[in-house]
Amino acid sequence: MVSHAQTHRLESGGLIDRSAPLNFRFDGKTFAGFQGDTLASALIANGVKLVGRSFKYHRPRGILTSGSEEPNALVELRTGARREPNTKATTAELYDGLEAASQNCWPSLRHDLMAVNQLFSPIFVAGFYYKTFMWPAKFWEAIYEPAIRRAAGLGRAAGVADPDHYDKAWAHCDVLIAGSGPAGLAAALAAGRSGARVILCEEDFALGGRLLADGGMIDGMPAAEWTSRTLAELATLPDVRIMNRTTLFGVYDGGTYGAIERVNDHLPSPPEHQVRQRLWRIVAKRCVVAAGAIERPIVFAGNDTPGVMMASAMRTYVARYAATPAKRIALFTNNEDGWRTVETALGAGLQIAAVVDARLDVSAAHRALAAKAGFPVLNGSVAGVEGGKDGVRKISISLTGGARAEVEADGLAVSGGWNPAVGLTSYHRGRPKWQDDISAFVPDGAPPGMVAAGAANGAFGLGACLSQGFAAGAAAAQSPGHNGSAGTPPVADDETFSLTRLWHVAGKGKAFVDYQHDVTASDIELAQREGFESVEHLKRYTTLGMATDQGKTSNVAGLAILAAVSGKSIPETGTTIYRPPYVPVAIGAFAGHHRDEDFHATRLTPSHHWAAEQGAVFVDTGLWKRAQWYPRAGEKDWLESVTREVKAVRSGVGFCDVSTLGKIDVHGPDAGAFLDRVYINTFSNLAVGKARYGLMLREDGMVYDDGTTSRLAEDHYFLTTTTAKAGPVMQHLEFCRQVLFPQLDVQLTSVSDQWAQFSIAGPKTRDLLREIVDPAEDLLNEAFPFMGAREVALRGGIKARLFRISFSGEMAFEISVPARYGDALVRNLMLAGKQFGVTPYGTEALGVMRIEKGHVAGPELNGTTTAADLGHGKMMSTKKDFIGCVMAGREALAAADRQVVVGIKPTDKKRRLRSGAHVIPKGEIPGSASSQGYVTSVCFSPTLDQWIGLALVERGRERIGEIVHAHDPLRGEDYDVELCNPVFYDPDGGRQRG
Amino acid sequence: MRIVCPFCGERELGEFSYLGDAKPVRPAAGAPEDDVFDYVYLRDNIAGAMSEHWYHAGGCRAWLKITRNTLTHEISSVEPAAGAGAAEVGA
Questions:
Q1: What's residue A330's pLDDT?
Q2: Alpha helices in A688-807 (DSSP H)
Q3: I need a labelling partner for A792 at 20 to 30 A (CA). Which of A74, A338, A547, A748 fits?
Q4: What is the pLDDT of residues A583-627, one digit of tens each?
Q5: Fold of the CATH domain A501-573
Q6: How far off is chain A from B45, nearest CA to CA, in Å?
Q7: How far apart are CA A773 and CA A766, in angstroms?
Q8: How much is the ipTM here?
Q9: Sheet-wide strand order for A328-333
């Protein structure tokens, strides 16, 4: 039987399933546990005390807590690609085959060489990095930072892609409840009975919160029975959803909450087609925070020795997991609640070595219990712990009055009182307020719609938890209008509350405040002496509360010590700002399915599948995949393919999918007037059946976008945008229509996805079109001149639109058909065009031909150019108001020495050009002062058999023929180029009109 | 953050895109350059209730005028732009 190996497992009891034994490995050793264990409880059941090494000093550390506030027991969970660093052993659910390894130790956990850091601890004080690694400055990147990164840090990331999937989901409810303890369950009962839609999130896999370990009597029955009855009733309510393994980690505006559901973290790997975790965004009208409270440590020398544990955690391990962290336990408490651990331990047959109680007024009942069980009750505080990596051996006590005592024990339970979990209620900059009678911060300034109840609200008694939770649940249900009867609230007695404030026991030896970041009480005192008195400064200077646990066990003690040394009260000292997430959330969960090829949506053109069959090489343009070129067998590189495609178009006929252009239908009697306002040129006078090139500006006078717009009917224009600006232009035009010019009777419809559009170009374009278009359609110049645009019928009867526009400079048409016919059209073009040698071309050839033709595109429409810079100054109407017209007239935008588009050719015909090179006047020293512009677009022109380009150059158009210097410091190239007419090919435009 | 679109109902922030201050009014044709300059460039940096233009890009494509408190993100009013949705033509 595996259970025999579990030396620290009680014979009976606990909420573990002894019929389901599990094997697991920690640091290579095999252990056994049970279903219902956490990794921490299973390690405890096997007598393992040392689980990790601390961050800075590499001190041996054990398990401090039993929940998500754990600062010490962080492990690397799983192996290979699924290795998760900094996983809390206290929340990791045990499964068969679990593998975990300790962190931050070398060569092993028991013999960690980095523990020599402790010898240098006088220099590893607060602000150590700031003080030590100041100079020489150049050492930082090369020496200090890599060395620090190696020495510090905790677990190691997997280093390879995560094989699992993560999901994101939305949920909506009336009442959202955080926590399934007595307050949370009571709130769910009240809200659910009232008829509200309820979601309850519980981060544990088991429901019940502190009831699981502390029990008690509710409605006259044991807590476990009440819990199961309550859960049974909640299951019958129609709209109550209980989500265990789900932590509510953040609060966002408008009642939106973030929750992380660990769907399959309790299994070795997610079952097929299931996700590991799911990130929930929950929209709730009201939220009840019943997240409980966190027991706080007392700071004393040696308080980080393995075997020193929070009192509540100690009894959780005993009662819930039947695992005994120690056989002979000492308790150090300053409050009544700590004594529960004594009762639980005695009930489980464990020995109590002593109770060290800081209070003078220990109750007669407790004294009687001590007398009966035979242990001393000492008034005073723990001043030191003797022990090491094998755990606690001896505890030294300074008694009130000055005497000292020693007690032998193998475990020390500590209780310094309880801090309500004020994270969620403080995430909208709410500052928790100090409540003197319980010596703790309680929620204040919670986000709208949120209320805390029970221990999270500072009401620690079981009766108070139930009544507050129930009242909060009923009220939360009523505000969204659910007025059903909440029924009778559950009742229980409150425990006695008694606490003497004690934060820090002065003494020799390191006394830790923040275990995870190795911040000691003396670090805080030092920081205060050095002037870091503000709690926010203290946090950053000492790194108190900045570790993965965000100081859940350390923040309040830290600021109490700061308050004491600076002579202020705790409320005067205040808290730091609380920020989500409440627990670490994997970036994978935030990304969800948006990774790798699903990082963003992919848009495919209507001819995509056909192009893929042809072996096209695709390029990402925004979300689109566009065919870049179509390689053929035997072609050695892209340049050879592109050159062939260009030559085929210029000498015969080719086609290119241009469906990615933005397309907008503009309808209405004022459509022309509207376009006049948004373009620099006039469209109201465009004849029906004609297309016109248009340029639009931003209101600041710079060019925004360009494209052709066709008038298909008196009140119907069809506007195209660039691929990149399709969305933004639609948004801009809607702004113009709805906000700026609402008096115009015009409507806009985005039809980008409705039309498949192809450019067909080359001298044989008409020959090819005649094979496609109904023979009755006249495509000759007379009936269909350059810049003509109208609907035609295709053979077979499909209606298409033909636009006689040319980006390539060749005789060309753009044809558009409803998108669903795009694939058929492209296949027909290939079939019908075979006799003419039709050649599909991609975006590279498209780009080559537009540069040869001197057309501007993205590199020239770069947001800093005016219409005149692009050579379109004359298009700008002076007779009408349009977007950008006034600002475009500003002095600097009309200056004579602006950089304008000009062509460039290398003086050495064999030279390759590259965009980005600076244009420097001949004979001047290259530099930012002498730069007169830069090369924007280049290509190898098959037509001219040399590299050509476009550039933005000061007074460029006046300097045609001038030889200038191209200086490319990035690539270390220098060469001469000639400024020339940007229209390299067919400058008088005869071919496109032909 | 959640915005109640007058046409679509309450929707999540991700459906909307933000433009900015809704107070400046585009000067009429022929206005002096200084007025247009102010319209294009000058903005108040408001800590408190601010009137803003938002676009329901992931929904009905209406431009909305939203009053939002820049300190708390509380939205106190949402109005469609004059030419949005069923707004009357020529009004």
A1: 98
A2: 726-735, 765-772
A3: A748
A4: 999 999 999 999 999 999 999 999 999 999 999 999 999 999 999
A5: Arc Repressor Mutant, subunit A (1.10.10)
A6: 20
A7: 10
A8: 0.96
A9: A308-310, A411-415, A328-333, A351-357, A377-388, A391-399, A404-408
